């Protein structure tokens, strides 16, 4: 059973990584769903961009994978974005755009009985301070509430204890839900998620906040910013790549620990 599940994990990993890279390359009109005045989905630019992840994806999940997207109350997702649209532009916005991507994806099924995987769209990083920084302190309670809702309304969570479900947890230390490493380690991954698959930007190996089977994706960058910083491939560079490493952030970590990598 473990081997079969691992085999099914490969196409979903390919799908999710391809989705994120494609979102980084798409122009804003294609990356963000908008509604017109009548409430209908506005026409979107769906022109394919050469060089996107879809052009090089060999393990195409279409036809091999079916994902059921839970229809959760808007308090877990859309209402948060309406309240604070800044969530659409910060580095943790993958949770929003992954949801939108899957809603229109060819792998989505509206019949949960035929689904291989179940996705719960919970926006745990869309509670922002005035400065635009996400506050993860309510995230565990929010995630527990969403799982409780799912387990009472549908039978699928209880059937596997979440083993065929996945969540996007893009915060600094993923489902440990804290921006300071020492506190994140002490808190650990939310126990309810112990069998679920986590899609996260945190990918440090041998760390409490990265459990086996997690899928690591790149942080989100607004497409308009990516397009504005594109340079011709033949442009001479004096520095090919720059790695900053550990740094001290007094604003996020006033106690003096290292904030990020």
Distance between the termini: 37 Å
Major sheet characteristics: 6 strands, parallel
* Count of individual beta strands: 6
Strand content: 5-15%
Major beta sheet, strand line-up: 2-1-3-4-5-6
pLDDT < 50 runs, ≥5 residues: 1-6, 23-57
**Fraction in helix:** 25-40%
Question: Tally the helices: what do you get?
Answer: 9
Arithmetic mean pLDDT: 77
Protein model, in words:
The longest helix is centred in the first third of the chain and has 24 residues. Strands 2-1-3-4-5-6 form a six-stranded parallel β-sheet. β4, α8 and β5 form a beta-alpha-beta unit. Helix content is 31%, strand content 7%. Keywords: Glycosyltransferase, Golgi apparatus, Signal, Signal-anchor, Transferase, Transmembrane.
List the helices and strands and how they pair.
Layout: H1 2-25, H2 28-31, H3 53-56, E1 67-69, H4 78-83, H5 94-103, E2 108-109, E3 117-119, H6 139-153, H7 156-160, E4 165-168, H8 181-187, E5 197-200, E6 215-216, H9 223-228
Parallel strand pairs: 1-2, 1-3, 3-4, 4-5, 5-6
Helix pairs in contact: 1-5
Quick structural overview:
The protein is α/β, with parallel strands linked by helices. The chain has nine helices and six strands, in the order H-H-H-E-H-H-E-E-H-H-E-H-E-E-H.
Task: List descriptors.
261 residues; alpha/beta; 6-stranded parallel beta sheet; 9 helices; 6 strands; glycosyltransferase activity; golgi apparatus; Exostosin; glycosyltransferase; Exostosin GT47 domain-containing protein
């Amino acid at each position: 059973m473990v081997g079969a599940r691992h085999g099914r994990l490969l196409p979903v990993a390919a799908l999710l990584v391809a989705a994120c890279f494609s979102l980084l390359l798409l122009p804003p009109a294609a990356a963000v769903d908008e509604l017109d005045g009548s409430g209908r989905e506005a026409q979107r630019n769906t022109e394919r961009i050469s060089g996107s992840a879809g052009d090089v994806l060999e393990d195409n999940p279409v036809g091999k994978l079916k994902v059921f997207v839970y229809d959760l109350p808007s308090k877990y997702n859309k209402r948060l974005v309406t309240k604070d649209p800044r969530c659409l532009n910060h580095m943790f916005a993958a949770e929003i755009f992954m949801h939108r991507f899957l809603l229109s994806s060819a792998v989505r099924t509206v019949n949960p009985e035929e689904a291989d995987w179940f996705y719960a769209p919970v926006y745990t990083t869309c509670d922002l301070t005035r400065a635009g920084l996400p506050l993860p302190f309510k995230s565990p309670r929010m995630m527990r509430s969403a799982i409780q809702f799912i387990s009472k309304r549908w039978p699928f969570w209880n059937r596997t204890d979440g083993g065929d479900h996945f969540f996007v947890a893009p915060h600094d230390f993923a489902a440990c839900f804290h921006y300071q490493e020492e506190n994140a380690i002490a808190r650990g991954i939310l126990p309810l998620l112990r069998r679920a698959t986590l899609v996260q930007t945190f990918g440090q190996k041998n760390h409490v906040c990265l459990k086996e089977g997690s899928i690591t994706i790149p942080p989100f960058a607004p497409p308009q910013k990516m397009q504005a910083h594109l340079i011709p491939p033949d442009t001479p560079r004096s520095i090919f790549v720059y790695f900053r490493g550990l740094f001290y952030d007094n604003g996020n970590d006033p106690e003096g620990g290292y904030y990020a990598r």
